[in-house]
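Q: What would this chain look like folded?
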Amino acid sequence: MSIPFSILDLAHIGEGQSAANAFEKSKAIAAEAEKQGYQRVWLAEHHGMRGVASAATAVLLAAVGQATSKIRIGSGGIMLPNHSPLVIAEQFGTLATLFPDRVDLGLGRAPGTDMATARALRRNMNASVEDYPADVMALQDYLSDDKGDNRVLAIPGAGTKVPLWLLGSSLYSAKLAGQLGLPYSFASHFAPDMLLDAISVYRDSFRPSAHLDKPYVSAGVMSVVADDEAEAARLFTSVQQQFANLRRQANDPMPAPVDNIDAVLSEYEVAAINNTLRFAIVGTPAQAERQISQFVEATGVDEMIFSFPITDKEKCLDAIRHVGGMTSVMQKQDWAA
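A: My prediction, written as structure tokens:
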């Protein structure tokens, strides 16, 4: 079974690196993804994190779009409670005008940051998760055709019909995506426990819409692939340390890899983190291909979206090439070299 492969890029700022380094790496990732035939490249909105440079997601997407020519680009996701739906419609309407038929708008309902930073974003702090469905539908309306009688218009935005996705790490967005007839992407790269339940809820609650006639679900997994198994394990220590920092509330750039994770993290930390990252694809290309095939068979997902948490630019691009070469599970795009 062949399915599309995509990439979720967090524009990681590695230890000893800058945001400028992260931006150049993001453009290189997108260009390589296009060359390898990936379906789409998404960027994630996070704020106040020293290891993530994609806070101004729409701005960075413009640079990524300019560095590519055909691959789909988008958000994985925009944290809608942080924003007015009209502003997001204008931003993504602008992107869709600059890069026609290439832009996706994935939406999440978490703040993507701590509460102090969420307050500093200056959205109405009295808003609740109950507003999220209405905000999604308002955004959808702003991006639909201009009927001439709209009191509020998104210009650019109206008529672009940017495809919406709902993203989630629990059952809430799975059900809402199904009810609205939208594609759904589950964050199994950091929230594996509800993966199968969320897919089931989404499919069971799906109602065909003008946007989608049958359920379509993607799942996010981390992927660290190298020619040598030991090297893949070493590179994987960066994200293991990053998760440890999150648990310790240490806001640091993404750590450089270490030779022995047990020398820097406790046995308990390693076990807990590896459980959270249990769907991560780590190993040689042959090992990774088996792991991906097993994941697809177990979940029945329609698309895989990989994040490559590797601080070294060239090693990250190598991993993207390794996964992109897995023709037995990857559906190549028409523009693939």
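The mean pLDDT is 93.
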